[in-house]
Specification:
The structure is a homodimer. Chain A is α+β, with helices and mostly antiparallel strands. Helix content of chain A is about 40%, strand content about 30%. Chain A folds into 2 domains: about 40 residues, Winged helix-like DNA-binding domain superfamily/Winged helix DNA-binding domain (Arc Repressor Mutant, subunit A); about 80 residues, Lrp/AsnC effector binding domain/regulation of amino acid metabolism (RAM) domain (Alpha-Beta Plaits), CATH 3.30.70. Chain A is built from 5 helices and 5 strands, in the order αααββαββαβ. Chains A and B meet through helix 1, strand 1, helix 4, strand 3 and strand 4 of A and helix 1, strand 1, helix 4, strand 3 and strand 4 of B. Chain A binds a DNA duplex (30 and 30 nucleotides) through helix 3.
Chain lengths: ~150, ~150
DNA sequence: ACGGAAGCGGAAAAACGTTCTATCTCGACT
DNA sequence: AGTCGAGATAGAACGTTTTTCCGCTTCCGT
C-alpha cells in the first residue's frame, strides 16, 4: 500500500499545503494537469496516509490564548507503566499541542498553549500531581516569529 | 473589526478544527443550526483574521522527513539589525517550522524538520554562517507523541 | 509489432457553496 | 405592556464544484 511519489504528486501536495480550500480546477491548472488525475492522486495519497487531516489554523491571540510555553522535562522514571500514564495524561490535555520524546539529557519537550500564566500553573500542578517528574523547565514564548505546518517538498 | 464570539461560533470553530473538509450542511447539523448562519459566521471570522489558512497535515515520516530537532539558541547580539537578519534567515528556510522569541535565559527556540541528521547539520552550518550566534543546543526528537494544531475552545 | 495495464482528458451526474428572500427573535424606546 | 427596527435564521434557488464514468492515449514487457 505504499505509494511512490512522482513530481506531479509533490506539486499537488505543495498546493494542498499552501491552500487546501482551492478547487480541483485551480490545483490542476497550477500543477499543469487536469481534474481527474489530481483527484485520483489525492485519493491515493489519502488512503496511503500521506495526506492526513484537513484543518484550519486559528489565530491563538485573538481567541485569548496569550501564553505559549515550551516545557523541558527530565524524569527518573523510565518504566513502561510510567510512560503509559504520562502519555495518557498528555493526550488527555488539550492545552498540550505537541509532545516529543527526546534523545539525550532532557527526556521530553512539550508545547503548551494556554490563556495566561495562571492557566499554565494550573496545568503544571495537575500534571505533576498525576505523574512523577524529576525536573521541569518552562520556556515562555514572548513572540511567535514563525509558524508553518508545511513540509518543504 | 473585532468579533465577539458566542457559543455557536465556538462550536463552528471546533468543527472546522476537527475537519475543515466537511460540508456546510454537516457542520450546521453538528452545531445545531442551518447553512446560512454557519456560512456567514465563518466568513466574518475569516475577515476578522480569527480563521486563517486552510491546510492539510502531511505525514512527515512517509515523506522521508525522519528527523525533527528543537534548537535552543542563546545570542549575545540584541540589536535591531541583528534581529532583522536572524528573522529573515528563519523565514527564508522552509525546514524551520516554528520559531519563538523567549523570555529568560534562552533567547530563541526553533523547531526544525529535516530528512536526516546530515541535513540538520547542513542547515546548522548555513545558519551560523549567516548570523552570529553565541550558543546552540539541539534536542533530537525520537518520537512525536502528540501533535495537534487545535486550540481547546 | 502487439497486448495489456495504467493514466489521462473530457462529459455527465450528484453534491456542494453561495446568494436571496421571507420570517423570526430580541432589545430599546415610548 | 406594545411597537418598532436591527440583526440573525431557515429554506429555497442558482451557479459552481466534486465525483463518477467512459473512451482514448501512452508506456512497458514480451
Amino acid at each position: 500500500m505504499d505509494v511512490r511519489l512522482d513530481d506531479l504528486d509533490r506539486k499537488i501536495l505543495r498546493e494542498l499545503q499552501r491552500d487546501a480550500g482551492q478547487s480541483l480546477d485551480e490545483i490542476a491548472k497550477e500543477v499543469g494537469s487536469s481534474k481527474t488525475p489530481v483527484w485520483n492522486r489525492i485519493r491515493k495519497m489519502r488512503e496511503a496516509g500521506i495526506v492526513g487531516a484537513q484543518t484550519v489554523l486559528l489565530d491563538a491571540e485573538s481567541l485569548g490564548f496569550d501564553a505559549c510555553f515550551f516545557v523541558l522535562i527530565r524524569t527518573s522514571e523510565h518504566e513502561k507503566d510510567w510512560q503509559d500514564r504520562f502519555l495518557a495524561a498528555l493526550k488527555a490535555r488539550p492545552e498540550v499541542q505537541e509532545a516529543h520524546r527526546l534523545a539525550g539529557d532532557i527526556d521530553y519537550i512539550l508545547k503548551v498553549r494556554v490563556k495566561n500564566a495562571r492557566a499554565y500553573d494550573t496545568f503544571y500542578q495537575a500534571l505533576i500531581a498525576e505523574v512523577k517528574i524529576h525536573n521541569v523547565t518552562a520556556l515562555l514564548s514572548m513572540e511567535e516569529l514563525k509558524f508553518t505546518t508545511a513540509l518543504p517538498l
